[in-house]
Amino acid sequence: MLSKRFTKAFRRVSERTKANLPSTEKNYDPFQDDYELEDSGYGSYQRMEYQSSQDYPEKPTALVSPQESVKQLEATPLRRSPTVTPRNSGNFVRTMRLLSKQRKEGPQEHDTFDIFFPEQSICRARAIYFTTRIKTHFPVVIPTKTYVGEDPKTLDKLYHTIVDRFYTYSYVNSFMPNGEKRESILAKFEYEMQAFNPKYLEFKGGREAIFAVHYALNATFGDSLEVADKVALVQVARECIENCLESEERLNDTERQCMYNFHKLMSGQEWPDPNLLI
């Protein structure tokens, strides 16, 4: 008797539960992965309708385990990150590699000379450095009356004379032993520079420009070059020398030597050993 009552009560509860559940015959979709389950108040699941691609939820970010993040932060001693160099520094890097290669091949004649006469090596490299910088600022053709400024041999003579005068100026002022000969040479230098323009000597690079460039212009072209053109070229050289001196002040001895060699090789010209030109 008790079992029959229990069976009838269970059937009534089942029928009420089925009546409250929504019908799934029409809404049934076999691809259940396309549904997003959402917890509703009455315990059923409804399908979310997306109108456009912008309504879709964002893709969840993959979780990273703490062990992997620690490994990523650890520095790998065997791998080295590439060094990014500016584009305009490629010529300098290639020049330094070329110098290193030449050193490995063996000592040259100039290397042996530099060991015994380091002061002359410094004066020579500095003179070529100044001249190469001035050459890049000078016009390709020097305007003269007789068109001699268009002759490549004459222009080579001009720049070789400038190198000799720069070499003489550095050697006499920095490395020549004190004595009557040095004093007489310095007095002659001072007279030549004062004859050009005394006020011009107050500017940085003025002495070097008058001593080397003005002398070379007179020795190479003479009267075929107008005085106004000479003054203009000396002014261009003075400004260039001023920049060279400022560059030297920011570098140490080794860096200056690298700078001298770099500009010498980039000039693309063979520079003979300078001579004292008093």
From TrEMBL:
Region ranges (Disordered): 13-68
Record-given protein name: Uncharacterized protein
Source organism per UniProt: Basidiobolus meristosporus CBS 931.73
